[in-house]
Specification:
- The complex is a heterodimer of chains A (about 250) and B (about 525).
- Chain A has about 250 residues and is of the alpha/beta class.
- Chain A has one domain: Rossmann fold, CATH 3.40.50.
- Helices cover about 30% and strands about 30% of the residues of chain A.
- The radius of gyration of chain A is 17 Å and the shape is globular.
- Chain A starts with 5 loop residues before the first strand and ends with a helix.
- Chain B folds into 2 domains: about 55-215 and about 245-370, Mur-like, catalytic domain (UDP-N-acetylmuramoyl-L-alanine:D-glutamate ligase, 3-Layer(aba) Sandwich); about 375-510, Protein-Tyrosine Phosphatase, Chain A (Alpha-Beta Complex), CATH 3.90.190.20.
- Chain B is built from 18 helices and 19 strands.
- In chain B, a hairpin with a 2-residue loop joins strand 14 and strand 15 (about 385-390).
- In chain B, helix 2 packs antiparallel against helix 3 and helix 5 (about 75-85) packs across helix 12 (about 340-355).
- In chain B, about 55% of the residues are buried.
- The chains are: A alpha/beta (about 250), B alpha/beta (about 525).
- The interface of A and B includes residues 21, 68 and 199 of A.
Amino acid sequence: MNAEKKIRICHLYPDVLNLYGDRGNIICMKKRLVWRGIECEVTEAGIGDCPDLTQFDLFFIGGGQDFEQEVLLEDLKAGKGKEIRSAVEDGKTFLCICGGYQMMGHYYQTHDGVRCEFLGAIDLFTTGAEKRMIGNYAFTLTEDLGSSMVVGFENHSGQTWLGSGVSPLGTVLQGNGNNGVDRTEGVHYKNVFGTYSHGPVLPKNPEFCDRILLSALERRYGNAVLEPLDDSFERSARDSIQREMKIR
Amino acid sequence: MNVEEAGNASAIRPNIFQRVLAVAACKAVRKFLRLRGSGGTALPGKAAMLFCRNILEVTSSGMEIVVVTGTNGKTTTSRMLEHAIAEEGTCLANRSGANLLSGITAEFTCSADWLGKPRKQYAVVECDEAALKQVVPLLHPKVIVVTNLFRDQLDRYGEVMHTLEEIRRGIEKAPESILCLNADCSLTASLADSREIPGTDCADCGRGSTVFHAGPASASRTSSPTIHPVSSPAVPPASCRTDPAQKRIFWFGLNTPLGEQKDVPLSDAKYCIRCGTAYQYRYHTYAHLGSFYCPACGYQRPEPDTAVLEILEMTASDSRVRIMAGGREFETAVSLPAVYNLYNAMAAVCAGLAFGLDAERMCSSLADVHSGFGRMETFRLGETQGQMILVKNPAGCDQALSFITNLPEERDLYFGLNDRTADGHDISWIWDVDFEKTIHRPCIRNIYVFGDRAEDLRLRLKYADVPAEKITYLPDSPSLLKKLHESRLPVWILPNYTAMLSLREELGKEDGMKAFWE
C-alpha cells in the first residue's frame, strides 16, 4: 500500500537548534515511516546551507540557546525566511519546538523591552516573562487533531500569545503551555504544528506523531493510511509520566 | 549593618557564640542523622548557617584550598588531587558529592574544632557550577579548576551558556585565585577573560586585556554577540611562562587527536563565542573538545602547560601516557581507564602545579589513584563482577559507552534513570546520546533498564533499533538485585545520580561496601 512512497524531511538548523533531545523527534518520525515501508530521507539545512526548500514535505525546527539564535536570525534574513513563509502558505508540514515555534511568530520581546523580529509566518508573538516555566506537563490535542493526550517537558521563559486567526494545538491539562494564563498550548495553522513540548515530544505521543506524518503524506500523495504499530513501549512510557503527574 | 554588608556574607565577622553554636549545631545534626542511618549532607550545613551564615569562611580560614567545578569529571579530578595533596599534609575533601554551599559548609564545619578552627591544612572541594559564586567568596581558594562544559541538567542550569555565566560569576568573586582551565574546551577557555587586568597585554599570565576577551554571554542574549578586538594571536609570548610565580592561568589539554576526525553532529559549541563564526579544528578529541580555532576573529585553543603528548596504551583498567607538565616530560600510568579520565588526570596535574606541588610527584601519583564514588567502581556479584560508571549527560554517556563497547569481553549492560531533583527532572538528554553508534556492538549481550524513568530508556533503545527481546525492564529494586545476582557475564552499570545512590546502598547492604558518606 505504501510501496514507493517517500517523505523528505528537512531538519532546519540542527547545528544551533538542537537542545533537549529534540533530534529524538526526527528519529521518531523516520522510524515510524520506515516501519511502515515508507521511505524517509532527512536533509540537514544549517546556517549557510541553501538547499531548495520546495523539494521537502516536512520541516522540523527545534529549540536552541539564546546565544545561538542571534547567529540564526542573520541566516533567516539572508533568504531562508522567505522560503519558509511560502512553504507554510503552501501547506507544507512543519513541526516547530520551543525556540523554533517562537521563531515562526512575529517577534520576541524580552522582559526589559528589547524586541527581536522573527519570521512572521504565523500570527503569534512571544513576550519574555520573569519566571521560567519548567516541568512535566500535559495537554489534549484539539478535536480536529483527534483529542488525544500529549505529555511532554516544558522549559521556557517566553509567553506566547496567539493571534485571532490561528488555533492552538491543544488545551493544557497540567503545567503552563503557551503562557500559563489562557490554558492554550502550541499552535496549529494550516499544516504547521508548534509546541513548547520537549521530551522529545513525539516518541511518547505516537498518535501525535502519526497525525503529523499523515498530514505530510496527504499533501504529497492525496490520500494516505498509516497502519497501526505496536506502541506498547510508547504507551507505558507515557503512562509512567502520567502517573507521576497524577493525571487520570 | 548596611545594605552592602548584608548582601555579602563574608563581610560579617561572627562572634564566638555564633561560631560555637554553629559548629555544635552542625555536628549534632550530623550525628543525629548518622544514628538514624541517613547520610544527609545538606541539613547539618543548613543548621550551622542558621547560627552563623558565613561559618564556612571561619571553618576554612587559613587552609590552602583547591576548588574543582565544571560539567563532567569534578569528582574524579578531586579524588586525584586529594590523593596527591594528602601526601603533603592533612587534606579535607567533600567526598560524598555534597557540592552545594550547605554540603560544603557541613564538611568544613564538622571537621573543625569546637571553636570553629580548622584541623586540616589543605582541602580539595568539588563544587557545583551554580554554587561556585556562593562558595568561593567564603573559601578564598588558592586554585579554581574548571574541567569542561557540556549540556547537562538543562532544566536546572538552563542552557550551557547560562552555566558558563554562572561559573564566570563565581570566578569573578575570587580574583585572587589561580585558574586551571581546559584549553581544549572553547567554552571553558573563554573564562580566561575574567583574569584580565587592563593596560597590560599578556594573556598567558592573566595580565592580558585583549587576547582572550570573549564577549560576556549575558550581553549576547539580547543583542548581537560582542566582538572584541584581537591584537595578537592567542599563543602567548614565551617570556611570560618563564615566571611561574606570576602565572594566573594554567592550561591543560590533550596534544593528540583521538577517534575519528569528524565534526560531531551535536556540538555544544559550534560557533565562536566571540564572533559567531563556525570554529575549525586542527584535531578533535571528543565532543566539542579539541584544537579549535576561529578563522574570523582568531580566538583559539591556548597552548596548554600540562598535556597528554601521546597515548601509549589503553586497556579496560588503565592507560599509559606521555605527559608534559611543568616544562618536563614524564611517562606514567593513569590507573583509571577511558579518555575522559585522561582529561581529569591532566586537570589534576595542572591544578597540582598551580597549587605548588612537584610535577614529577603529581604525575606518578596518577598511577595508583582510585575512582570516586560511582565512577568506575568495581564490586563483586556472586560469581562475577560489576562495574559502575555514573552517567548524567550525553557527553559523559557517549564516552562511557564508547569505552565499554570497545572492550573485547562480552558483558551485560544495565542502565538506570531517575528524574529526581538531584538528577534534573528533564530526562530528554537520553535522546542526545548516540546509542545508535555504540549499542549494537557484539560485546553487549543483554540490556536491562531500571529506575523511575526506565520506560523512557527502553523507548529510547527501541528507537535506536535495539530488538525488544534484548531489553528487559526491571520495575523495582528487588527485580534489579535478583537479575544482577543471577548474571553469568560481567556487568556494566550505567546509572544516573540518584539511581546510583540507591543501587549502591542496596549493594552495600550485601557487599559491605561503605556507605557513601564514609
